[in-house]
DNA sequence: TCATTTCGTCTACTATAAGAGACGAAATTT
DNA sequence: AAATTTCGTCTCTTATAGTAGACGAAATGA
């Protein structure tokens, strides 16, 4: 279980306890309302179990919240300050492509990602990935060839590109050294 | 498993398959990227297993999406037309309080709920439940005593109240017959 | 045409989520 | 103060989530 998941699990646990206590419900009461055993809810709140989608659905139902909203609240619950050593990092085992989530979960829809793209690596994205967001790409090191639909942009260190309407895109590093760039995006 | 959960599970399954296929990834490829076995991903996509929060976290990580966003997309994926017989209903076993989700998941932030509140029943909500939404209450049958912080509103059939700033609220049915009302709310 | 690879499903097994009920601590009642 | 209730945790069992690897079908290549 990596850092990202640990945070998620802990945040979900806290959020469920919070929603329950806000309503003044005991474990037994929530158990009765949701149909999930109180032993299980206790374990979930203490991070001793990872709830299934089924159980999360029942709990969010009892709270009268859509599941996505319960999760969003959980993610928002964390700190406004995200220390460098707590930022979630994800690395593609195959290409060495690395993505670091800079922003705290409380991003108010604004997210910063720092990406390292090894030389020669090509990363395609479907148009749907850009459907509900605006984003900019700021190259901080190396060079990047960014294909936005049919249009190809050659970006060098310091360049910053704002993306247009959603299109299938490809990130490609044509150079001999790692490319580094920052993605800034706002949701919706 | 009630209707709400069935839909959720099915929608999650579809969404995961969609995100995977959009990226042109095979089960093996997603398995490698996410650290979840391809057998498990196959079961999840075919609704033969309910993924744990841990596994959902790994999958959303591989897609580069926050978990709440993946779930939100899953919920949005359903039809624009929500047939009456497919609307999720939740009933409090203790009080008989019933809530029906009228709107399709594609509500664009607009949700309609129809509530039946039995005579004499009292339902409190914490202020936090109203934090990121505007809502109105429209009484369609019986009468409703709605306490918004210190202020108490007596609502009769046909009345419609717009809620103010977030405060702890209480729904109470002072009458002798079921109260029925519609909640219209916009998120954020 | 036959071999090789790739894909998703299936089988068998292990790890763990989930439920039923017991238990001790704390609060409440009489 | 003793009895009763309420609360959250713990124990034990069962159900099922999750993994490793085999398998047949389809696609690809020689």
From TrEMBL, chains A, B:
Gene3D superfamilies: Jelly Rolls, lambda repressor-like DNA-binding domains. The keyword Transferase does not apply. Keywords: DNA-binding. Residues 16-70 form the HTH cro/C1-type domain. Signal peptide: none annotated. The keyword DNA-binding applies. CDD domains: cupin_XRE_C (cd02209), HTH_XRE (cd00093). PANTHER family: BLR1115 PROTEIN (PTHR46797:SF10), HTH-TYPE TRANSCRIPTIONAL REGULATOR (PTHR46797). This is Helix-turn-helix domain-containing protein.
